[in-house]
Design brief:
By secondary structure, this protein is α/β, with parallel strands linked by helices. About 50% of the residues lie in helices and about 15% in strands. The chain has a six-stranded parallel beta sheet with strand order 5-4-1-6-7-8, with helices on both faces. Strands 2-3 form a two-stranded antiparallel ribbon.
């Protein structure tokens, strides 16, 4: 990876943990939609990193697709109010690492999250000036592999690396034909990676030393 010219990050489980805020938004949305269910952190942990088309049938198997989408929109409206207030927890070393890495690489975020959430994250974390661009699954309903390639083409990236925390991240990196770096502190795991790091400081040091 000595010729790396850009770093594309997953968000949830890689840069921060905002599951507690997500749980709050799911429960507020469920209340508005008159759904008699209380969502827990375990519920959300289980589906972190999934695309919307898989999450909604899993969470609401008795609802039609139209009902699922309406409920999800309500949940996301609640989330948009909660995140600026409650945010999440940046993993140790992320803030300093992103600021340092941005001096050497073009930085991007590709996530399976709803439209607008990446921007909410960057504003909350005060890191919006350090990322060149981002793409969320909620914008075009496409897999990460497609959105990685989209950013590669848009910004003429020759040798990007994708950094994430799940087997799905690894799979999409392989599909996009880019190296995959695993961070082991997130929500998932995989044996298929090109490099792995147990903390963000080690990741930062590695790429700054290349």
């Amino acid at each position: 990876m000595n010729d790396t010219d850009s770093l594309i990050f997953d968000m949830d489980g890689t840069l921060w943990d905002a599951v507690d805020s997500y749980v709050q938004s799911w429960n507020e949305g469920a209340k508005i939609e008159n759904i008699d269910r209380v969502f827990t952190r375990a519920d959300l942990d289980h589906v972190m990193g999934w695309e919307r088309g898989k999450v909604l049938p899993y969470m609401f198997p008795d609802k039609s697709v139209e009902e699922q989408e309406r409920i999800y929109q309500t949940i996301n409206e609640c989330r948009a109010k909660i995140i600026p207030r409650s945010g999440g927890v940046l993993y140790e070393g992320v803030r300093e690492g992103i600021i340092e890495l941005a001096t050497k690489y073009k930085l991007f975020i590709v996530s399976n999250c709803p439209k607008g959430l990446i921007t909410e994250f960057m504003i909350w974390a005060g890191l919006q000036g350090y990322f060149v661009d981002e793409m969320a699954h909620g914008v075009n309903s496409m897999p990460k592999s497609h959105n990685i390639k989209l950013l590669m083409d848009k910004h003429s990236l020759l040798n990007p690396v994708y950094i994430g925390d799940t087997h799905g991240d690894s799979r999409d990196s392989r599909t996009a034909k880019v190296p995959f770096v695993l961070v082991t502190y997130g929500f998932g795991d995989t044996d298929d990676f090109d490099q792995k790091f147990d903390n963000f400081r080690s990741l930062t040091n590695y790429f700054m030393d290349l």
